[in-house]
Amino acid sequence: MRLKSTLLFASALLLAGSSFGQYKVTTGGQKYTLLEEATGPGCGYCPDGAQDIEQSIDTMKHAVIASWHGAYYDGTSMVVTGDPFCNGTGYITGFPESTIDRYPFGGSAIGQSRPWEGYVSSRNALPPNFDVSMKCIYAHHLSTDTARADSAMVSLTVTVTAKALSAQTGTWNMNVFITEDSISSAASGFQQHSYLNASSTACNGQPCWFTGLGSVLPAASYSHMNVVRAVLATGGSVFGDLALTNPAANATFSKTYTYNFDSTKFNPRYMKVIGLVQAPGPANTSTGNPIENVIEARVRWMPRSISATGVTEMEKAMIDVALYPNPAKNRVIVKGILSEPTETTIEIVNSIGQVVTTRKFPAGGSLFTESIDINELSNGNYFMNIINDGQKVTKSFVVSK
């Protein structure tokens, strides 16, 4: 598959549905890494950066992605007011570049050229100093009267909690980003340019998805993903709000953020919330003001008419489940959010009900992404049972070699 819109079907699956209710996600003692990508529609090499991120989902399974669109390449279409990251930190010297936890690897520049998987892996291997959790991630209309002008206005509320896992020295801040997926590149200001028309391989040696698609990618071939739409810290600062100073072990701090937005401009069904703990600003290009830990969840949409069945999804072992690729050949990736960050069992069952593969994964954070080897399975239809905290969810997939 070479078209980004096709390859991103897994992200679309994670964003489908309209369930609602209070739920919680947590890092659960697991280190997650924030990859902040500097990008923009006018950047001809940026589709290559997007490909590096999307096809590395299994090797960057504990990465959270935030794509900042820079005013230099984007005009104003997807730029957060003031362009605070790309042009406000001094971390970025070109596009596409990324910071990984805003950490200066080996004392070098904080902005890193692709590929980024190795940097993410090195940060993921570290023990976390903080846990981050979020709850009450839901959106609702400010008015139930469709005749009123403000009926398009939506309110999003999220509570973020930081917890020190050991005694720490210094000051630590908290922040929340709002991102949006599946933004069409059809309209002016959103059209993605590309220098990859004649490229045969991407930066990591894989076939380039964008060969032969022209200097401006067709809208059906590209969707902007992980686009940062808002920063909720005071004043829109990318360095957050004060949370903890010299915290003792198990010290916690919580803050509730509310974000009101126009649903004719942003689509809450495709929005995600990122909560994080970080070293405070102002920007320091030597130390990088590193991100200590980060968690992500998609926005829940609260319908105007609430039914008793609206919370049933919250009772499953895992929500927002995606299996891909499907059909699969050598491996199948399972991704979702665990109802409880406890040990999870994956069973693969064949068409006659026999369990042919069983794997257990230890307790960790709420975000679950694992690659399951299926080389020994023959062609056919299979079911995957995901078992967690006494609950089970089942998804089907096809093996085709």
What does this structure look like?
- This protein has helices at 4-7, 9-15, 46-54, 71-74, 117-124, and strands spanning 24-26, 33-39, 63-69, 97-100, 130-141, 153-164, 171-180, 183-184, 223-224, 227-231, 241-245, 252-262, 271-278, 291-298, 300-301, 318-324, 331-338, 344-349, 355-361, 367-373, 380-388, 391-399.
- With 401 residues, the protein is mainly beta.
Residue stretches low in confidence (pLDDT < 50, at least 5 long) are 1-22, 305-314
- Oligomeric status of the shown chains? single chain
Question: Structural class given helices, strands, pairing?
Answer: mainly beta
- DSSP strand count: 22
Order of helices and strands: HHEEHEHEHEEEEEEEEEEEEEEEEEE
Percentage of residues in DSSP E strands: 35-45%
Tertiary shape: globular
Overview in brief:
With 401 residues, the chain is mostly beta strands. Helix content is 8%, strand content 38%. Helix 3 (46-54) links the parallel strand 2 and strand 3 (63-69).
List key phrases describing it.
401 residues; mainly beta; five-stranded mixed sheet; 8% helix; globular
